[in-house]
Amino acid sequence: MSVPSGARTRLDPEARREQLLGLGVELLSTRDLDELSIDLLAEKAGISRGLLYHYFGNKQEFHEAVVRRAAADLIAVTAPVDDPDLGTRLLVSLDRYLAFVEHNHRGYVSLVRAANGSNSVMREIYEEARGALTDRIFDTAGTDGLATFGVVDTPAVRMMVRAWAVMVEDVVVRWVADPVGVGRDDLLATLAAMLAHAAQSAPPSA
Amino acid sequence: MSVPSGARTRLDPEARREQLLGLGVELLSTRDLDELSIDLLAEKAGISRGLLYHYFGNKQEFHEAVVRRAAADLIAVTAPVDDPDLGTRLLVSLDRYLAFVEHNHRGYVSLVRAANGSNSVMREIYEEARGALTDRIFDTAGTDGLATFGVVDTPAVRMMVRAWAVMVEDVVVRWVADPVGVGRDDLLATLAAMLAHAAQSAPPSA
């Protein structure tokens, strides 16, 4: 009986904080952000509210930390796999993104709402994550990879790829709530094909 | 001197309320929604705060009414023109949408944030407007119009057209803030072409 407790107390504060954030993200998968209180986390983690306030300051900072962690999780989980084929790498990342939203639907919708809402800190966190996700597409493809699609990296192309990502977000959240008869693989194939098209149809930039 | 005052008092309450909402939307064009207070509207309209509270109840209801009115304005201003060519009708509507965002950038961004945020009434108002805008595309094109693009009206096609509209919203708001060297006409042509492509690449639905 003393082993788990001993293991827990051996964690340094940073690791303990990360563990609590992981629990926060997990709790968020079936809840709105508004319903994720310090009280709930304290109860689920079996520690005092006082200690949680010590780690997170206040509810707003706690929510920001959870959103930051969820964004980091999303970036990590969709990281490109080691496959020589660009199309395969894209499909695998899209598949993992879709799985992430499927498993965290309510929390993800709540995150996206918080991220698009009026709170500027939340917006910034998510905007940064979206930026990282689209920048990674260019890093992963590389100049040669883009060239196979007849695409050159310009600000206009980045703008269109960013817009594609926003579109994917909308389609995926909507599809998880109501698939309207569309199969999972067909959805992924469509979204992947639209990326190339969005990049290819970018307007010329002076 | 008595004429404008006389003209004003002759307005029935409904017309007066509409006039005040019009002023609210106008004030919003250069302000965030948060900055649009009953006090400011009272000052600009030259009437008492008490009378405004009589019309709008409270700040939240006032904001909802302004957002509702802005959404109605957006739907009205982008209404399809009377041109036999589908492509022309689409380009004119897109052009007017872009002009609307150009002239109301700050207020529009604030509206979109409120609409995507956590307030469910705001979300519903804007979601309805988005739904009306995309439904109108199908009504305007008609079955024959869709057929010229090889498109049949299915839930999956509606999902993709809805996603296209979200993409347009993102691109336009971004482009107005920073055109990244892209010309206005090129942007409009790209967005128009992407609608057909989005509809055509809808996944099959069972």
Automatic annotation (TrEMBL), chains A, B:
Keywords: DNA-binding, Transcription, Transcription regulation
DNA-binding region(s) from the entry: 37-56
HTH tetR-type domain ranges (all copies): 14-74
InterPro entries in the cross-refs: DesT_TetR_C, Homeodomain-like_sf, HTH-type_TetR-like_transc_reg, HTH_TetR
SUPFAM superfamilies according to UniProt: Homeodomain-like (SSF46689)
Name of the protein in its database record: TetR/AcrR family transcriptional regulator
